[in-house]
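Form 7-S
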Amino acid sequence: MIYEYEAETEKDAIEKAAEELGLEKDQFDVEIIETQKKSLFKKGYVKIRVHTVDTPNHVAPEFDGKVPNATVRANNPNMVSNLIPQDEFEQKLLDFVHGMITKMGYNVEVEIMFREEKKIGIKLNSSSSSILIGRKGKNLDAMQLLANVYAGHLGREDVRVILDTENYRIRREESLVRLAYVTADKVKQSRNSILLEPMNPFERRLIHTTLNDIPDIETKSEGDGLYKQVRVIYKGLR
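Output:
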C-alpha cells in the first residue's frame, strides 16, 4: 500500500505516518517526493510517500537501509563476537537462506553478522558475491525480501532481516552520498537540473536527505513504481 503525508520536517512527517498507520518506523519505506525550504514568503514543508506491503508482517519490499551504526558495528567485536545461532529461529533462518542460495546453484556460507533490537544481519560468504548482489543490489534485495517473509512465517514478524555480502550495503550508501554531493556541485555550476539513475526508495531518500540543506539545491522524484529517478534542481538566481 502507498500513503502520502506532509509536515514541516521529514521527522514530523515520518512520525505522523507511523502514528496513523500504527506501525514502527522501520516497518515501512519512506520516499521524499517534495520539499520546500522555508523562506521569507514561503512556509517550509516536506511531503513523503510511505510504502508498505499488504501482508500480516508488513515486510518492506526493499532494504530500507536503516542499519544503525553500521560503521561502529563493523569495528565493535562485541556486536559480532558470537556468530553461533542463539535459538531455533536464528538456526532456521540461516538454513533457509543457505538453502535458497544453494538451490539457485551457488555455493555459500551464511553466518550471523549482527544482532540489534528487532533486527538481525546475515552475512553471505560466497565466491559468487557479485551475482548474489546483482545490478544495483536487486538480487540481494529480492533474497532479503524472501528471508523477511520466511521470518514472518516463523512468527517473528517483529524482526527485520538484513542480508549483506562484501559490505555491499555500506559501500553503496557511501557511493550514493558522494554521488549526491558531486551532482549538486555540477548543478550549481551549470545552473541546470540533472536526472539520476533509477533507485529504490531508500536510495532516493538518502539522496534527498543528503542534499536537503544544500543552498540553492532542490530534489524531487520522478517516474512510476518503486524504482524512480531523483532530479537535482538548481533553485538559485540564474
